[in-house]
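User: Teach me something about this protein's shape.
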Amino acid sequence: MRIDRADSEAELLGPPISNREIVQVVAGDFEVRLAQTADEIAAAQHLRYRVFYEEMSAHPTPEMAAQRRDFDPFDEVCDHLLVLDRRRGEGPEGIVGTYRLIRREHAAKIGRFYSQAEYDIQKIIDFPGEVLELGRSCIAKDARNTATMQMLWRGIALYAYHYNIRLMFGCASMPGTDPQQHAQALSYLHHHHLAPPEIRARALPSRYVKMDVLDAGSYEARKALVRVSPLIKGYLRLGGYVGDGAVIDSQFNTTDVFIIVKTELVTEKYMRHYERGVNEKG
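Assistant: First, the predicted structure itself:
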């Protein structure tokens, strides 16, 4: 029987790696992995709707409100990271946390990264190696604890390791659309955590909101840090930086800050207990 080149290459490479093999960690009753089915993706979108639109007062489109799901074209091309509480179920019913993961190849299918609607990220696009956009992070209200967040970050670390991600980025939010209420937090972020010029994103001119509204030294840094949202503080603990300028997101009723994280610290922190070859096929 004739074996053509494509069949021969497929045999040499072996079967494709499944989503479950890329990310899967079980810790007690909790599991973190990538979505496997359309029903799981829909359940993650329902969770996002409950958190963003019902709890945080974002403004849904009529289609979103009718379906009680948060969705956009990026959902069709990205990977969806899930945390499941297996006491609630093994599939869609068990989902208590989610993150949306967009790599270069995903963005190419849409023509841009999500955050390009708010920021000039050309320096990140030009960055050598693979980059990963993080977004749509949310956890169910009754599951918001350190354990769930750590499971999400374990999943992100495994995903970043598998795809050799060198830089992660995305928009992180603080509630409300009045930047003055975040004057101390924004000023602190600008003065203490501004990204190096070579990877610094900048808010688009039409959306740019000045972050350093308070002079350095005119506020107490420790008190200002308390005003930074928990998600942004989590990124800072991993050595994260912020971009230049905040952006008001009227749909989500938030003030957005651009976050950049180099992956070395993430993978070191969350993968030190794993063998280096855990995701490698011989």
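Now, about its shape. Confidence is low (pLDDT under 50) at residues 1-16, 273-282. The chain is about 35% helix and 25% strand. If you'd like, I can walk through any region in more detail.
User: That's plenty for now, thanks!
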